[in-house]
Each structure stands twice: as C-alpha cells, then as structure tokens.
# Entry
Amino acid sequence: MNIVVCIKQVPDAKDVRLDPETNTLSREGVKSVINPYDRHAMEEGVRLKEEFGGKVTVVSMGPPQARAILEEAISCGADDAILVSDRAFAGADTLATTYTLSQAIKKIGAVDLVICGKQATDGDTAQVGPGLAVRLDMAYVTCVQQVSTVTDKVVVLERMMDDGYDEVEVELPALLTVVKEVNTPRFPSIRGLRKARVADIPSYTAEDIGADVAMLGLGGSPTQVVKVFPPEPKGDRTILTGSVDEIAEKLAEIFRESSIGG
Amino acid sequence: MLIIDTDACIGCGLCEDNCPFDAIHVEEGKAVVGDECTLCGACIDHCEVDALTIDKEEVAGIDLDAWSGVWVYAEYRNGRIAPVTHELLGVGTDLAKKRGVKLAAVLLCESAGDVPAELIASGADIVYTVEDPALKDFTDDAYGHALEDLALKYKPEIILAGATAIGRSFIPMVATTLGTGLTADCTSLEIGDDGHLHQTRPAFGGNIMATIMCPNHRPQMSTVRPMVMQANESDASRTGEVISETIAPERLISRCRVVKSVYTESNQVNITEADVVVSGGRGLETAEGFRLVEELADLLGGAVGATRAAVDADWIGYPHQVGQTGKTVASKLYVACGISGAIQHVIGMKSSETIVAINRDEKATIFDIADYGVVGDLFEILPAVIEKLKK
Ligand SMILES: Cc1cc2nc3c(=O)[nH]c(=O)nc-3n(C[C@H](O)[C@H](O)[C@H](O)COP(=O)(O)OP(=O)(O)OC[C@H]3O[C@@H](n4cnc5c(N)ncnc54)[C@H](O)[C@@H]3O)c2cc1C
Ligand SMILES: Cc1cc2nc3c(=O)[nH]c(=O)nc-3n(C[C@H](O)[C@H](O)[C@H](O)COP(=O)(O)OP(=O)(O)OC[C@H]3O[C@@H](n4cnc5c(N)ncnc54)[C@H](O)[C@@H]3O)c2cc1C
# Structure
C-alpha cells in the first residue's frame, strides 16, 4: 500500500503563553514542532504499512526549516520525505495549500491512502484534508478515531461525530484525517535516527510540481486576512471569600443566575 | 509579498512587536521580513509611516452581482435540527437585511417532515429541500455534491454552516469544488460598507483574532462556531416558501457507506451545545472524586467537561475533554474544578460567558481568566454547594 502522510510545522503549543498585559502571543523561545495531530497521522501510516506492507512518504509544505520535522518523521518510521518549499507558496489559504499539496502528491504517483491530521494548531481550519481529497479525486473521512480493517479495496473505520461516532466503510483510494484517539505515536528509534541523519529529502519548487503560478500563495487564495488583533481581554475577576458556607451560598447564587439568565 | 519601503522605514520596531508570526526584525535601523511571513497584514495596520505594503495582483474577479441571497445549511441528523442552525438563521437574518436579499435554508435529508416549517419560524424566507434515501446517513461526497449543485443553480452570495463535525467535514469540499474561499469557525460576521462579508475568527488556539474577507470570489463561505450567534425568537406565524429540489442520482452515490451510527448515551448533553458546563481536572484526585463534578452538572442541568489529565486518568471519556485536542465550548456558565488552567485547556473554554474557578492554589493560572474565583479545597466547597442547590 502506497501511503502519503501530510505534516505541518507549527509553533509549540507548550511554549505558547498569553502575555497577560497585552493578551497577545508571547513568542520568546517558542520552538517549532510537528503539529500534534500529525504525529498520530504519521503513526497510523507507519502502523498500516507494518501490518499491510507498502511504503510511507511524508510531505510538508513550508519554509526550508520544515525539513526538521521531515527528518523526525523518518526517525519515527517513514520511508521517504518530501519538502515542498518555494517563496511562491507564501500567504496560501487552504484552497491554495490544497492545490500545492495535491500537485506534489500527484508527482509521487499512484497513492492508495493519504493521511492528514484533523487540524493544524496554528491556522486551526481543519480544511486542508477535505480540500486535498477533492483535488486528488479521493473519497475521504474526517476525524477518524479508529481504523479497524483495511483490504485492497476498502478501509473500515470509526469517525467521531458530535453526538457519538459512525462506523464507515470507505473505498480506496481515500484520504483520512485523524484525531489523537486513533493511536499512540511511537518515539524515534535509534535506527530511525541514523536513517534520518543520512536521508535524502528532496525539496520541490513550484516548477518541480508543475504548478500554475496563478493558483499558488496569496494570489491563488480567495480569502484574505485583512486584520489581525488580540482577543478582547476578560474583565476583572472577583475572588469569593468567607466561610465555606458563605462561599457555597454565593456560588449557588452565581450558578443559578448565570445558568438561567443571559 | 510584503514590501518594505526602506526610505520611509524609520526602524521604530512597531511592526516587529505586532507581527504574530515573528517574521519581521529590525536590522541596521530598517525592517527586514523573513520566510515566516504569512502576509497577514498585521504590521501594515501598525506602521505609522506607511512603509509597508502587500503586493497582491488584482485577480480578474468574477461577476459578483450574479450571486445574490444568503444561505444557511440546515444541519439535520438523527431526527434533530442542530441548534446552531437556528443561530445561523439569526445572524443570517441580519446579513440578508443589510444586503437587501432573501434568507434561505438548505435541508438535505431522507424525509423533511415539519422541519421546513421550523426553519421558516426561525427566520428562513425560503427553504430548499432535497429528500432522498441516499441522504439518510451523512456522507461527505453525497452531501457535498447536493449543496454544490444547488449553489450552482441558485448562486447565493453567502453560504453559512455550523462549525460542527458535519459542517467542518463537508463544507470544505463544497468550497473547493466551487473554487471559492472558506473561513473556518467564525465567531463574528458582518457586512462591511464595501458590501462584502467580514468574517472574524480565532486562530492560534484563540490567541489571535483574524478578520477575513473573500472579495473576488462567490459564494463567500463560513463555518460558524456553535453557541456564539443569537437565534431569532421562533415565530410560527412567519410565512415562507418551500422549494423541493431533486439532485441527479449519480451525484448522490457515495464512496463511503455508513455501517452504523452509535450515539453515546453517557453523553446526554453534547458539551459543545450546553449552556452550562461543569469541568473537573486532576484536583478531583480519583474517579470517585470526579463524581462531585457530575453531580453538580446534573443539578445545574449542564454537561460534564474535563481536562486531558482527567480523561487520561480514565475518570471520564474523551468526548468530554475540553481544550486544544478536545472540544471547544462557549457556554453561558463554565465551572472549572481542580483545573490548573494550562493554555491547552483554556483555549477550549475561555470564550464562555461566566467562568467560575475553584482551586486551592491561589496562583493557578485558571484564575487569570475567571470571572469568579474560589481559593479553597474542592472537597469542602463542592459538597457544600451541592447541598445548597438541592434545597
Ligand atoms: C490567522 C490566520 C487565519 C486563517 N484563516 C483561514 C481561513 O479561515 N480559511 C482559509 O482557507 N485559510 C486560512 N488561513 C490560512 C491557512 O492557515 C493556511 O492555508 C494553511 O496553509 C493551512 O491551513 P491550516 O493551518 O488551518 O491547516 P488544517 O486544515 O487545520 O490542517 C489539517 C491537516 O492538513 C495537513 N496540512 C496542513 N497544512 C499543511 C502543510 N503546509 N503541509 C503539509 N500538510 C499540511 C496536516 O496533516 C494537518 O494536520 C489562515 C491563516 C492565518 C495565519
Ligand atoms: C499538545 C498538547 C495538547 C493538549 N491538549 C489538552 C486539551 O485538549 N485539554 C486539556 O485539558 N489539556 C490538554 N493538554 C494538557 C495540558 O497541558 C495540561 O496538562 C492539563 O490541562 C492539566 O490538567 P489539570 O488542570 O486537570 O491538571 P493539573 O495541571 O495537575 O492541575 C490540577 C489543579 O488542581 C488543583 N487542586 C488539587 N487538589 C485540589 C483540591 N483538593 N481542591 C482544589 N484544587 C485542587 C491544583 O492546585 C492544580 O491547579 C495538552 C497538552 C499538550 C502538550
């Protein structure tokens, strides 16, 4: 089975702190890491390869620094990695991103399964998976929490819904986006680390993937971010004091008011 | 790309300070932009000497006037209209009025029953219904094709859907096939003086807000966060038109088959739709302790939430996890019990209206975002409040 996993480099959520004064992101010492969901996507790709044979290629569109996460992916069991990097991609919204990724994936050849994370923790749209599936003319299922059976024609899986879950059978080739319940990602192996050190990771430019420049980056993006601002800060807080009984009385009152009114 | 007019630039560093992506640095008295730039434009707003511009080639736009009307996708599953649908009809009413157009709802289902009447009572002027056995279960391709075909037939200028599991799954497909923009998980929608839809959404886990437009393409599409918009008062005397549509059968053939749907019973209330969420964290110490949270939630008619620590300890199931890797809630009342306030938790609940935090550590960061705080022991406070509420 030929599997492609899409991974994105994002700022490390652990390091992201709100500056209480300005209520903006303090970026001091913020590291870049693999999007947390994409670790699960990678693990699922490698797990399925180990069970059913085949090959896992990880793909990331991003600046040259994104090579670091591709090396990490190899150390965790991926066979090949491809960086898709060109200044022409800057400012891409999800429509331009899915175009770029689909062009790169088409270059890999016949693919049976594409796995993405549910969403990236920076852009937070969860739109890349579905859009990419459309571009690759693949069936897709989002928010997959378990992959139970894979044959050469179908995958049987569970997709998380707001009110429970659905068991779904999807025809291959298909694209899945996964949530963290799907598996527990492994740590890099010694052998993997060695492999990553010497891995040959090609970097594709817009020209390499045969892209129509008009569909890339800012120019190829129908959405435009026109303003970025910090969220409204919260008002003052009140610390309740007194005996346990007094506090409980006040709380009960607050609970009654805020759950009924407003 | 971002262009810096080095003659105008005074190297003041305002752009550097305001760049959410750390992409601009002042070097030798002039701003220099790096690869991290996403062309978001935050710097341009802050530059006092107009030294920054974004070079964007004007695309030859489509004929915007050919697209008219505001549409709401009416989510209907398991015999139930998703509450966000009414909220969308609420905000849709304002948008349609401002644009001087009609508000329509689109209902895709096996059998519509009384649902169109309910949608009209909630504000729809027109309800387009597609009734087909192929739409019994939700599949992305069948639902996506149906909405795409209707959109191409009627050409609405705006399409809104709930940012629910279903909306966030198939709406991106429709936007991609229509070749238009889609803004995710919006918390505010307005028609600007320019006549375009101004869509505001949180990104970076809620640490920044972004206003996004889709000026040259139609329809303008958004998924909208549940519990944020105000629904209209339901008015059974409202009248509207119900238009029954048929979609070509081959367009409703899905490459996915839903074998079965499982509705989790322990999840009586879907936490993303609940008015009251009572959440517990590691401070509850044991599964036994966690029952206090459930009891309080029950008394308040609310849903139970949890931190990842509580979920990992198996005190409650993952569907209850609130936060970055769980659900986002925006309840009227959020009670955080024994929760430290880690950013990954906070981004999933901080847009709740009233936040009450109970924690014995007065320095816990959860107090930074709380409206009411109690510094004390849960095992004293919670039983006491539960007693009071029972009376
Ligand atoms: C503040 C802000 C707000 C934005 N809002 C919107 C918006 O509302 N609509 C819109 O269309 N665009 C928006 N964008 C642009 C969007 O962030 C980019 O298009 C980005 O490249 C992809 O979107 P995402 O990060 O949301 O990914 P998601 O769709 O959340 O990512 C899902 C999965 O897709 C895969 N993936 C995503 N990006 C890559 C990549 N570069 N390489 C490999 N795999 C990848 C990963 O598997 C990931 O887990 C916004 C950007 C910013 C900065
Ligand atoms: C990539 C990533 C994603 C994550 N996603 C999520 C997510 O979606 N949701 C989430 O919640 N977390 C998430 N986390 C984990 C998060 O960082 C925190 O570890 C977690 O939220 C902590 O849970 P907690 O507040 O229950 O536990 P703790 O941080 O241990 O806090 C327990 C609190 O209880 C108080 N306490 C203890 N005993 C008592 C008592 N008797 N009375 C009163 N107070 C008491 C303590 O003072 C303390 O403040 C994520 C982490 C990462 C790295």
